[in-house]
Amino acid sequence: MTQISDELLMAYVDGQLDKPQASAVGRMLHEDSDLARRVERIRQTQARLTESFGAMLRNSSSGSLSSLQERKAAGAPRLLQFFRYPLPAAAIAAALIALGIVGSFAVSSLFSKGEPKPKIIEKIASEAAAGTWTEEITKLHAYFSRDTVTAGFEAQANPELVRFQLSKIARKAIPLPDFTKHGLAFNRGQLLNYRGARMMQLLYAGKGEPFVALYILPGGPDQALAAGSPGEVKTVSWSADGVRYILASELPPDALRALGAVAQSQLAKYQ
Amino acid sequence: MVYVSERQPGIRTGLQLLLPRLKAFAVALCGGEQASQALLRITCRHILAQAGLERGRTLFEIWAFTQMHTLWASRMAPHARAREGAPADARLFLGNARYAPPSPALLNLSKFIAYLPPQQRGTLLLAYGEGLAYDEVAEVFGVPVATVMTRLVRAHNALAYWLEHSGAPAAPRPAPAQQQPHWQPAHILDTPPGWDPASNSFARERAA
Q1: 20 to 30 Å CA-CA from B146: which of A110, A117, B75, B178?
Q2: Quick one: pLDDT at residue B111?
Q3: CA distances from A70 to A16, B62, B139 (A)
Q4: What average pLDDT does this structure show over B52-68?
Q5: CB-based contact (8 Å) between A60 and chain B?
Q6: Which residues, in sequence order, are bridge partners of residue A212?
Q7: Alpha-carbon span B15 to A158, nearest angstrom
Q8: Over pLDDT 70: what percentage of chain B?
């Protein structure tokens, strides 16, 4: 655990951290009295806020608290698919390209079966039909240049907060792979939208080498490590335990495959 | 768990059940009784008109809160910004103490809440009143989870500072290195307007 921000402590008090993170924070509280004092202060204000806003709802209705209790008791997964996270310009451009590929299906459906389809639309539709996650991520990654790799309002540089966000979209604890022994430091994590689902992009950068991005998207059957996309952007992809991963970079293929194996082994140890 | 698309046949019933919670959210956003009633009305009309078009797996309540916030942001927030600096009606945040003598602590807290920016009040209501997860709150407001967490942390810090200094005769000062809230000494209320400690009631209730 590197630094404990107020946001992370608040998430701990609010019960929003995954179990491994919460346990780690709990252990640190025993060792650090300043941390314990900060948590106690948050607990006091949380109690006041819960009392006040809970009372406000109770005044409105007798049913509101029961729905809250029902939600907690049910513990059912929340399936939320309408997200409106703002994206940086490069990601918006890439997302529009991806949408354009998907949207070609809608264009081709405008033509009835009897009418001949324009060749350009047939070409786009066939390319879209062949498109896979790997191919689309490769295209997306090509839009990121080194000067866009900075931490910003929507991109988190704090690895603990990124881990927290990652646990929310994957619905389980996933560590951030560590490539420091390979000269690559964690730079930032950013949530992107991919076909209505949330995807995490983790960026690692070295001193002069091409940066490396790890894309993480829930879903998909288990697949072994595989290299892909001949061209400037190289990828290695794999799936494990219901989560898909793609490492993308302009590094040489062997170096990228080695990083992929490192990430795979670190993630496997955590499961 | 009920999703929007499944609610079609019983949308009116579902909306009726949700009304009190939507009203509380409207109060948090608008900070005034009339404005919150107006927001609730336009939200209900919108929900009844739009719910039939929704397809997907969004929880009905999350979707309803999102619609309300979107309507508030597009139609009411610009007018609210013109009155920036004026606090909300603290009486609206007294909870069930509206019908019972409010404790000094609750009075104090309602004043604090009245001075918060609307988006922060709404975030606090959804997180600590409704008990939504951070990502659900983020979806309602259409912001990143980090923004929700920042709003909550700022509220925690401001409240801690307020509690430490509550009862001081001067205007509340913001906690150090925090965003400057729009507090003005002239708007500090020792008791809610119209509240008579001797009879433990508001003037309008006595008149009624």
Answers
A1: B75
A2: 86
A3: 18, 15, 21
A4: 79
A5: yes
A6: A204, A249
A7: 40
A8: 62
In sequence order, the β-bridge partners of residue A205 are A185
A126 neighbors A160 (Cβ within 8 angstroms)? no
- Between CA A103 and CA B52 the distance in angstroms is 24
Q: Measured between alpha carbons, how far is B81 from B114 in angstroms, rounded to an integer? A: 15
Q: Nearest Cα to A35, choosing from A18, A69, A68, A10?
A: A10
Give the separation between CA B87 and CA B89, rounded to whole angstroms. Answer: 7
Contacts A53 to B, Cβ<8 Å: 124-125, 128-129
Q: Which pLDDT score is estimated for B90?
A: 79
Per the CB < 8 A criterion, the answer to whether B49 and B59 are in contact is no
- Tally of CB atoms within 10 A around A164: 25
Which residue in this structure is represented by tokens 């929507």? Answer: A154
- Asked whether residue A20 carries a pLDDT value surpassing 50, the answer given is yes
| CB hemisphere CA count around B33 (13 angstroms) | 4
Q: How many CA atoms lie within 13 A of B102 on its CB side?
A: 27
Contacts of A71 in chain B (CB under 8 A): 131
What is the 8-class DSSP label of residue B193? T
Give contacts of A45 with chain B, Cβ < 8 Å: 155-156, 159-160, 163
| Residue B85 to residues B40, B82, B116, B184, Cα–Cα distance (Å) | 24, 9, 10, 7
Tell me how close the Cα of A75 comes to any Cα of chain B, in angstroms: 10
Cβ–Cβ of B135/A168 closer than 8 Å? yes
Does residue A156 surpass a pLDDT of 80?
A: no
How far, in Å, CA of A33 to CA of A80, rounded? 39
Three-state secondary structure call for residue A192 = strand
ipTM of this predicted structure: 0.72
How far apart CA B11 and CA B75 sit, in angstroms, is 24
- pLDDT-derived band of residue A86, with 50, 70 and 90 as boundaries? very low
Query: Other CB atoms closer than 10 Å to residue A163's CB: what's the count?
Result: 24
